[in-house]
Amino acid sequence: MLTINKDEMKCIALFESLTGVVVKDCLISEGSMAFVVKEGQMGRAIGKGGESINRVRKAFAGKGVFVFESAKEERAFVENLFRPAKIKDLNFREKDNARVAVVSVDSADRGIVIGREGERIKMARLLLLRHFNIDLKLLSR
Questions:
Q1: Which of 11, 66, 68, 103 has its CA 20 to 30 A from that of 26?
Q2: Strands 23-28 and 32-37
Q3: What are the distances in angstroms from CA 74 to CA 70, 71, 79?
Q4: What's the CA gap between 114 and 72, in Å, rounded?
Q5: C-alpha torsion sign, points 41, 78, 5, 1
Q6: 105 contacts 82 by C-beta, under 8 angstroms
Q7: CA–CA gap between residue 120 and residue 41 (Å, rounded)
Q8: C-alpha angle with apex 11: 3 to 37, nearest 5 degrees?
Q9: What is the CA radius of gyration of the chain?
Q10: Strand order in the sheet with 87-95
Q11: Alpha carbon of 28 to those of 48, 98, 112, 120, 135: distances in Å?
Q12: Mind giving me the DSSP string for the chain?
């Protein structure tokens, strides 16, 4: 069960009103915010020519905005966290009584996956922990 605070609820309400999509989760950090939208609604969240996401970015000026599509299965969720980068290899391992997703991406996609100042990878890690209780390890080759 996810716990969403008042600030996150306000952000979800604004995002939904600007895009018309259902938001399943929201994380807010100092420099960015991440929204997890309902499966199948990523295209609508972005909008034609980026229209919807540009409205959202304008409304949350000063913060980086990341949008990820939800998934019922952990493998699909990890893949969604890394789009548009292509995952070369994805394995789930047990380490110290915890599950870890080991993700390998091409070195050319490393910047996309990590994001400015590491914000995208931080959000991806937090969301994977929050939704599936799985940690994240990134490898690039």
A1: 103
A2: antiparallel
A3: 10, 7, 9
A4: 24
A5: positive
A6: yes
A7: 20
A8: 75
A9: 15
A10: 87-95, 98-105, 134-140
A11: 26, 25, 20, 12, 19
A12: -----HHHHHHHHHHHHHH---EEEEEE-SSEEEEEEPTT-HHHHH-GGGHHHHHHHHHTTTSEEEEEE--SSHHHHHHHHHTTSPEEEEEEEEETTEEEEEEEE-GGGHHHHH-GGGHHHHHHHHHHHHHH-EEEEEEE-
pTM for this structure?
0.91
Side chain identity at residue 54, one-letter code: N
Amino acid identity at 16: E
Place of tokens 């047990």: 94
* Cα angle for residues 30, 62, 37 (degrees, 5° grid): 75
The residue type of 9 is: M
Match 């420099």 to its residue by tokens.
Answer: 31
> pLDDT, tens digit, for every residue of 5-57?
899 999 999 999 999 999 999 999 888 999 999 999 999 999 999 999 999 99
